[in-house]
Design a protein that fits this description.
Largest sheet of chain B: 3 strands, antiparallel
Largest sheet of chain A: 7 strands, mixed
Distance between the termini of chain B: 28 Å
Shape of chain B: globular
Strand content of chain A: 15-25%
Radius of gyration of chain B: 15 Å
Oligomer: heterodimer
CATH superfamily of one domain in chain A: FAD/NAD(P)-binding domain
Number of helices of chain A: 17
Number of strands of chain B: 7
Radius of gyration of chain A: 23 Å
Strand order of the largest sheet of chain B: 5-6-7
Largest interface: A-B, 53 and 52 residues
Structural class of chain B: mainly beta
């Protein structure tokens, strides 16, 4: 048995990222001095997660128009598809206030001569955000939150249909953490690493999304029996070739158009793309165009930085140093000068995200951010059906979630639940399972290279999982195509891994235990993705999921696809949930 | 773009409970080699290239090097962290130098907070 650490919190925050840190701050404002706020973070809170390399813009800011106009834009950007307009509206209403708050916390904002924030396109503003994460974390320190670094949460504690806490292990100290929360906020990010990345071997983590986000929020919500949404609506990125750095700095920042090998601006040429808005067509449509151009042998595809605003190209390297410094090194090493030649782009491995141009996550009640599991709240990438919130929207969502949590805490007078020893023992066995197995199985013999004769490593499992997802669930090398037959194979293979093979997963040390849990969580997310894709028998988001057996949108599916996992049968039951249009207007057009 | 540690500069952050690079790495990748007592990366292929370790190293012992499959030798990118800015020096494969000073904070107040 591991040494145990018991933690009690009024507000328990799992994940010290974009949402979690600001949620702590807002919980203090709303809940007063006596509220005990705890954050558990699997890395080091000042430098963890998606923001660790920095960011050069905030992609959600109401520069013009109204919050309703932003909703209209988000709806359009995912092909007029269903979104939770109530949630987006709640974020858009206070995102500007949040940005002001972060400016006062020390974030350097770029400004125009009139003192207003420097906009990038319609909805973005530019920042010097290389220290965005420490600035974000400073709000959690300011709130006096109790912060535990290097604790990996493995499971939520559910009693009588309510979340009463969580357990995990110390990545450094190997202790078993038993945390009780009167209310719990789960915000541990989205999921990378389900599909095979473009770069191999020593560059396999040179991907766009943060590779250490393994979908643990999705997996834990699923295992807790929460209603999940939109796992078929994955994000398929087009990014700079090789480094997979973000492209908005060039496409929105300097107006660099996509061109093919013939130099044609195909977004403004093909009537289908033009009907969607040309260069600024919805994100999935731009992805689709990239795919079609390449498949028509008009690749490579570029962002033509030589045609954009020449004044902007000089600042390009500086902007990338604030967010993705490796591309500046890449350009230097490969003699690439973006002012003299266009920058090649490529399609990357798909991701599950809730706050970027994807909308997978937990389903929530109204605008409370409470999931269908009582006392369990989600924010950031874990919150489903509300895309395009990005960093500033995730900060804001953390604030909104915190206010609702404090309100529920006061209204319902929630108390700490008793957690029986039996339950603690079961959760501890499960948490340390791969580590314990390594010890048991190493007694059964080692090969001459030191590997287990009767065990599998996290790396082997990850490779197997990525191969299945790549080849049968629409990976990059399959041009994101799927059909029911492929999905059937993916379902069969991922089920076998989950049901039969996890018993062989072994971890030599605490670092490998962390990576083993990453695989366990990813496999749960794979199951959600396969079942959701299979249920949505149409193609609503071309470019993201291309169903060759149902290539057109079907009005029958003009709704959300939600699901609940049945622990007993291991089945994911999918069902339709109607979309409600809150903001009037043409769903396939931007209002401004 | 894994971090490479110069053993002649790294002192294992003596006096710290663990080296700064190990403290900050979002992927839990940096650790101290038991025999040499120098920082090493557990698995260079797992690095995301955020450069947090490179910026945090108090002895500038860490250089972030691009994987050769992606980029030619011997280009370099060196950050030097100041109170409210980072000075980046880019040296391409032909020795051409470019320098960039990027603002990081409005004030230095929260730099010491932990």
């Amino acid at each position: 048995m591991a040494e145990r650490v018991y933690i009690d919190a009024d507000v328990l925050i799992l994940g010290g990222g974009t949402s979690g840190c600001i949620a702590a701050w807002e919980a203090r404002q709303a809940g007063g001095d006596d509220l005990k706020i705890v954050i558990l973070e699997k890395a080091f809170i000042r430098h963890s997660g998606c923001l660790s390399a920095g960011m050069n813009a905030l992609n959600m800011y109401i520069n013009q128009g109204t919050p309703e106009d932003y909703v209209s834009y988000v709806r359009y950007d995912i092909c007029g598809a269903p979104i939770r307009e109530d949630i987006i509206l709640s974020v858009a209403g206070e995102v500007n206030d949040t940005v002001k708050l972060m400016e006062s916390a020390g974030l350097p904002m770029k400004k125009k001569e009139d003192g207003r924030y420097l906009n990038r396109g319609k909805w973005n503003i530019e920042v010097n955000g290389s220290l965005l994460k420490p600035v974000t974390a400073s709000k959690a320190f300011e709130a006096g939150a109790e912060i535990y670094n290097r604790v990996y949460i493995t499971e939520l504690i559910i009693k009588d249909g309510a979340c009463v806490g969580a357990v995990g292990f110390g990545v450094r100290d190997g202790k078993f953490y038993i945390c009780r929360g009167k209310v719990t906020l789960l915000c541990t990010g989205g999921a990378a690493g389900l599909w095979r990345p473009n770069n191999r071997r020593d560059a396999h983590h040179r991907i766009w999304y943060f590779p250490f986000n393994c979908g643990s929020a999705y997996a834990m919500c699923k295992r807790a029996g929460a209603e999940m949404t939109s796992f078929e609506m994955r994000l398929v990125p087009i990014r700079t070739k090789d480094t997979f750095s973000p492209t908005g700095t060039m496409s929105i920042g300097m107006g660099a158009p996509m061109v093919n090998a013939l130099g044609e601006e195909f977004m403004e040429k093909d009537p289908y793309y033009v009907s969607w808005g040309g260069h600024t067509a919805p994100t999935p449509i731009r992805m689709l165009a990239f795919q079609r151009e390449t498949l028509a042998h008009r690749g490579p595809i570029y962002l033509d930085t030589t045609k954009g605003d020449p004044a902007k190209v000089t600042g390009l390297k500086g902007q990338y140093l604030d967010m993705s410094p490796c591309i500046v090194l890449y350009w230097g090493c490969n003699d690439i000068d973006p002012s003299k030649e266009p920058i090649e782009i490529d399609g990357g491995d798909p991701y599950l995200v809730g706050a970027h141009a994807g909308m997978s996550g937990a389903w929530t009640k109204g605008i409370t951010r409470e999931t269908t599991v009582q006392r369990l709240y989600v924010s950031g990438d874990a919150l489903g059906a509300a895309p395009s919130r990005f960093i500033s929207g995730s900060w804001t969502c953390g604030r909104i979630a915190a206010r609702h949590m404090v309100k529920a805490l006061k209204e319902n007078n929630y108390q700490f639940a008793d957690i029986e020893d039996d339950l603690c023992d079961t959760l501890e066995d499960r948490t340390f399972g791969p580590l314990k197995r390594y010890q048991e199985k190493s007694a059964e013999g080692l090969w001459s290279d030191g590997t287990l004769m009767s065990g599998i490593t996290h790396k082997d499992m990850e490779s197997r999982m990525q191969k299945i997802m790549e080849e049968y669930c629409g990976g990059r090398t399959h041009w994101y195509f799927v059909n029911e037959t492929y999905l059937g194979i993916a379902r069969k293979q991922i089920s076998r891994m989950r049901q039969d093979q996890l018993q062989y997963l072994c971890a030599r040390d605490l670092h490998e235990l962390q990576l083993s849990w990453d695989v366990i969580n990813r496999l749960d997310v794979c199951q959600l993705v396969i079942e959701h894709m299979s249920y949505r028998k149409e193609t609503r988001f071309p470019g993201y999921v291309n169903r060759t057996d149902y290539p057109e949108p079907d009005p029958e599916f003009d709704c959300f696809v939600n699901s609940v996992w049945d622990r007993k049968t291991d089945e994911v039951r999918c069902f339709k949930v109607p979309y409600e249009q809150v903001v009037p207007g043409d769903r396939k057009k931007q209002s401004i | 773009m894994p971090p490479k540690v110069d053993p002649t500069k790294c002192d294992g952050c003596q006096g710290e409970s663990e080296p700064l690079c190990e403290q900050v790495c979002p992927g839990n990748l940096m650790t101290l080699h038991k025999e040499t007592m120098k920082a090493i990366i557990r698995d260079k292929s797992d690095c995301w290239d955020c450069m947090t370790c490179t910026k945090a190293c108090p002895r500038q012992a860490i250089q972030t090097v691009l994987q050769y499959q992606l980029a030619y030798f011997p280009g370099k990118l060196i950050p030097l962290v100041g109170t409210n800015s980072v000075t980046w020096t880019s040296i391409d494969c032909h020795g051409r130098v470019e320098r960039f000073v990027m603002k990081t904070l409005v004030s230095g107040d929260d730099e010491d907070e932990d």
